[in-house]
Amino acid sequence: MFATEKEPASGTATASAPGDAAGSRVPAAAWYALAVLTTIHIFSQMDRVALSILLQLIKTDLHLSDAQLGLLSGLAFALFYALLGVPLAWLADRTSRLRLISVCLVLWSAMTALGGFARSYSQFFLSRVGVGVGEAGCLPPSYSLVGDYFPRTKRALGISLFNTGAAIGMVGGMSLTGYLGEHFGWRAALQIIGLAGLPLALITILTLREPARPKSDRPAESMLQSLWVLLRRRTFMHLSLAYALSHVATQGYSQWAPSFLMRSFDMKPTEIGAWLGGMGAAGGMLGVVSGGLLASWLVPRDQRWEIWIPAGSVALCTPLYVVMVLSPHAWLNLLSNGIIAFLTGVAGIATATVQSFTEPYRRATAVAIMMFLLSLLSSGMGPYLIGLTSDFLAPVARGESLRYALLVASVMLFWSLGHYMLAIRSAANDRVA
Q1: What 8-state DSSP symbol labels residue 18?
Q2: I want to staple 191 with a disulfide (CB 3.0 to 4.6 A). Which of 75, 96, 116, 158 is the partner?
Q3: How far is it, in rounded angstroms, from Cα 24 to Cα 88?
Q4: CATH T-level assignment (fold) for domain 27-207+223-425
Q5: What is the helix (H) or strand (E) element at residue 210, kind and residue range?
Q6: Half-sphere exposure of 233 toward its Cβ, with a 13 Å CA cutoff?
Q7: Residue ranges with strand state E in 26-108
Q8: At how many degrees (to 10) do helices 97-115 and 139-149 cross?
Q9: pLDDT (tens digit, 9 = 90+) per residue, 84-93?
Q10: What is the pLDDT of residues 374-424, one digit of tens each?
Q11: What are the beta bridge partners of residue 210?
């Protein structure tokens, strides 16, 4: 489908990548590639959030504690997602990113489906580990591909549109899984959601081509050398930490929101899937597109806006988060969640911003480091610590232990802002592109 160049030594087909010299025009092939990669992102997010809407059903069926649920929804997935993300991204910087994405897509889809057959906590835990291993090879090479398909002046827009996959996957995952879980059980829900993603691997292999990467962009450096360079770059590290810490609160809430709404407002899974998924997806999609358009307009005028925009979004999120978890009304909780989803979507341009502080041949590795911190802190430790805090507060919180555990997580938003401020101070000295 794509016009291809001569096959390189590795045997991976390549397509011409748009460069700044060609202006800001984005070729049709790049838009098609973005559509396919975004669809993969949608299924990745669906497989990830499917568990959250089913937690209460799984807890009842398998007789699990909140701490065990936190491990299933967090650390079981995130630990291996984080640990394997960097080596897989380093591999993606040197081999076919599309082949890597396709193999990983098959793995995480199959493991999601296998989770529906689990008969014990340990079996379920292993299935979530498999999902984490598979999804570790999705986002870093995908961000790298979008960065190569789109010229620098349109990179933030391309990545913002790619990030809409998370919002679409959230509403699709919550709405569809909520319906399937309520009418057919949590096992059938996981099996259907998992198997639905398998055909995408074939589409990716048959219709997409790698954008060309100049030979000079492939230095002979080891993974440890790449890591050493990036870890010493202050702006890159402050941005990565800021992004991850803010998600400890927001993503931690997302994992626990269905259980919270069931316990505090007696909502049903179908209602939660429709309202929470709908508000979150609408806000998130509008946010990521708005963030990309805002960055495309403001950053050419002053490059500092690529940090100011996500920092400002997190600053606005902080008081809204407190209102959301303390609200005695379901409608105010859901409304606040929708606005926070919008602001979190706007802040998502941070994943494009880090590419301004990394060389093209280190992009996938840089995104993997960012995703490592995001996974370890927000996806991994966040849900588990919230569940652990909820169990700890249960004897004294009179049925509201989860609410106060979520409130404690808000301190991470303040911590995130501190790193954004430090990134602004060091940005001028660390900028690469």
Answers
A1: P
A2: 116
A3: 31
A4: Growth Hormone; Chain: A; (1.20.1250)
A5: strand 210-211
A6: 26
A7: none
A8: 140
A9: 888 888 888 7
A10: 877 877 677 878 888 888 888 888 778 889 899 988 899 999 999 999 999
A11: 14
